[in-house]
Each structure stands twice: as structure tokens, then as C-alpha cells.
Amino acid sequence: MEKERLLLIRAGISTVVVFLLIYTVGVLKVAALSNPSGQFASYLARPDVITIDTMAAFGKLERPPVLFLHDQHTDALKEQNKDCMTCHLSENERLSPKLKRLEDTGSKAVMDIYHNNCITCHADMLAAGAKAGPIVCAGCHREKPLVISSRAPMGLDKSLHYRHSAAHENKCERCHHQYDQENKQLIYTKDKEGTCRYCHKQKTEVLESEKRISMRLASHLACVDCHRKNLAEEMAAGPVRCSGCHDLEQQNKIAKVDQVPRMKRNQPDVVLIKTNDKEGLKTRMYRVPFSHQAHEVYNDTCRECHHADLKSCADCHTLAGSKEGNFVRLEQAMHQPGTTQSCQGCHEKKQRQQNCAGCHAFLARDRKQESSACLKCHMAPPPESTGVLYQEGEMQLARMIPEIWRATFGISYDVKIPEKVVIKELTERFEPVEFEHRKVYDSLVKKIDGDKLAGYFHQSGATICQGCHHNSPVSGQPPRCGSCHGKPFNEKSLHAPGLKGAYHRQCMGCHVEMGIKKPANVECAGCHIEKKQ
Fold first, then answer.
1. pLDDT tens readout for residues 124-148
2. What residue ranges define each of the domains in the chain, with the CATH number in brackets?
3. pTM for the whole thing?
């Protein structure tokens, strides 16, 4: 009996040792899988990290979600001459994104699918002496994961869209479709193509009449499946690995088409932005003739302006506001700052670019402007005395936009300003500063040379003077800084710093915004010569 008892104890100890070895190997394997370089940093960023938290749909998770490295697994399968079908089932000639199933039938069934397939695969590979992932719970369900996602969003800009369109011989139906509500099916309607995001949102939306999958799922189903089929036929194809699309370095390697032809959607060259108000309200402003063709050059997708559908802005944004436009009034939609989907907001974004920021970073958004500035967009139609009907006159004005622009771009920046200005108000410690007035002005003009936005909205060559002389009318001879900024700080005017503060904030701030390194913006000797004692 004693001998049998010792044998049982030894067998138990051996079992425990084997289990501990398997657990240790499993943990080390997942660490190696997550960090192939062998350097165990606190975190490793990868673009192929997928969070498996499917069980959350059935209730609170019992264990932490699993961080799954997709590219690592596809590479391991490739070494064994296996492909995506090893893990994914096919439905209607497309791979299901789920592991070994087409739908989630229940909590236990889904959990068993993951455990049976993943653990079995890892165990078989370990038994064959190959590298593999863990086979114990803590190896996958980690409280402190070893990896974080560096996934960069991916989309189709104009260049990439054109390359796809050309590759498919302009067969837009390969990607674009609409949902036929009556027949409950996807159909293609020519000239009604829109961005996928019109229907597929970031999160899955379940409607009463239909079920829309998320944008993420839709793009992976369509794009990856198409790429796989092209590769199988030995045709040129896009990536099928996560890193191919979602690694920032790989994105920067995507070839760009220099001159992308205009996308043909039967869109107008010019359009008259007018109200379409059901309540019959009238606007006090002139209608805006808008060059649709010219603005297309600056946008990658139609969605940058048409954020609901390819409709007129006024269809949703009425004068009084409507439910279709989230009660954003037409005036707000066109002038709202902080969003690139409004005219003013898009223009402000460009004004923040380095060549423009030296002036526009210091110009208050709510500064008073002359009423003539509004007429740059809200153009007056030809007078009735010309015999042209009012409506026809507006459309005629819209068609004249290219000519108007060409005339506007002819603004002369030959403004009569002094070559140098001596700043001598603050000379207690330093010698007066000789400011290269003309040189600075010419430098600013050079930076915006050929800029259509600046050429259109700068009223004259003196407009650029407002970058420094920001509270004076457009003039080639604006008042001196000391006219508004007193030498001592005026505590009753908190928004107007003293003269010393105004000079330093304007000059140093401009150098920072425009990336000017000489003279250094914090180096007194770059501008000032200290007085000799």
C-alpha cells in the first residue's frame, strides 16, 4: 500500500509539473507572439490587434476580452499552406468575419467554438514542435495586455477611388448599391452612387425594416473579399493583411495619381445656393453662386460637404431649421466655424495652414468686417434695368464665376508702404528696433502667391496689412500700433495689451505660427541691440 501511495504522489507531482510547464510555455508563447522581436517592452503597438469581446452581447464578461493578432495568425497559417477558410466560413461567396460560424446562436455555443478551435489548434502545433499561442485561460484573457492597437483609419481618397474605378472599368456596381425597401434587396442605381457611410455607420444600426451592418464590417467584407479573389486569379490586388491598410507607414507607400480626372456624376459645374423653405420664408441676403467644379478639386469625397446624401444643402437645412437637418438652419450650416462641412469652417481650416496662420491666428473670428466682405459670396444679380429676369440674372452670375475669379486674382500687391519702420517707443534698455517693413510684407505676399482662396477674399493688396494692423480698415497707411496699445497696460481694456505686450505677442506669435526660426522668437538679441552703459 505504501509503495502504491508513493507512486500516486509522484504521479500527482508529475502532473502538476507538466501543467505548470504547459502554462509557462503558453504564457511565453503568447508573449513571443505579441512581441516577435523578443524585447519585452511594457507595450507593443501593432495595427492588427482585434479585440474579441463577442460574449459581451450575452451579458457581463467573466474574463477580460482577448486581444487577437490577426496578421500573426494568417502568417502562421500560410507557412502550413492554409488560408482564411481555416477559420472562416463562406456565405454567398463571401467569408464570414466570425470564427467558424455564420451567426451567434448562444453564449455557450459561441464560447465552445472559440475554445475548441483555438486551444485545439495551439495544442496541435505545440505537439508538432511549432510555435503557437497559449492553451490556458490566462494566456489569452489577460488583465494587462502585452499589446496595444496602432490601427490607423483607412479610406478611399480621390486618387485611390480613381485607381479602383479604372481597374474595374468604371463598373460602379462592383462596390455601390442601395437598399430596395419594397423588395428587401440590394440594387444598383446608376448616377445615385454615394459614399458607403451614407448607410453604413460606425456602429451597427438595426432599423425596423432592415438590418444595416457597420461601416467597419461592410468595408472588410467587400474590400478584403475582392482583394482575395483577385489574388486567387493572379491579378493585381490590394492588401489582405491588416497592416496593409491600417499601418501608417504602409499607407504612406500607396501610390498617388497626380491628376485625378473629375468624377462624372452629372453634377453641375456651377450651382445657385438658394433656400428651399417649405414655410415660404424669405432671406434678406443675395443668393450665392457657387462653383461646384472648382471646389471638387479640394475635396476627396462628396461627403465632405454632403454629409447626409447627395442633396442640395437647402433640402435639409431650411431658414427656420428642420428635423431632416437636425434643426441646423441654412445660415448656420454655411457659416458655422469649427466644421469642414460648412463654407466658413472649411475656409478657416485652410487659414490655419502655416503660410496663412501668421495673420489669421491673431484675427478674431467675430471681428467687425465691412459689409462688402459678405458680397464676395452673396453677389448682387444684374439690375432689372438690363432687361434680364432676376432668376436668369442670378444663374448668369453663377456661370460668370470663372471670369470673376480671374479678375479678382489680378489684385496688385504693390502697396505703397515704408521700406523700414523704426520702433522707438520702448528704448529704456535697448536701442530702437529697425523693422524691415517692406521685406516682411513681401515675404507674406510670396507665401500666398497663387493661393485662390486668398486671392478671392483679399479685397486688395492692403488686406494683408490687417494681419498686424488687425483693428483698422483695409488701408496701405493704417494707424501705428501705439494708437490703440498704450505704453502702460490699460486695466480697463483687458483685450488690448500694453504696447510692449502687443509687439511681442504679434511678432513672436507670428514666428511660431509660420515656423520662422531666424531670428529666434525668444532671443532678445535677434531683434534688439542692448544699449551701452
1. 999 999 889 999 999 999 998 889 9
2. 21-149 (3.90.10.10), 158-251 (3.90.10.10), 270-376 (3.90.10.10), 421-526 (3.90.10.10)
3. 0.70
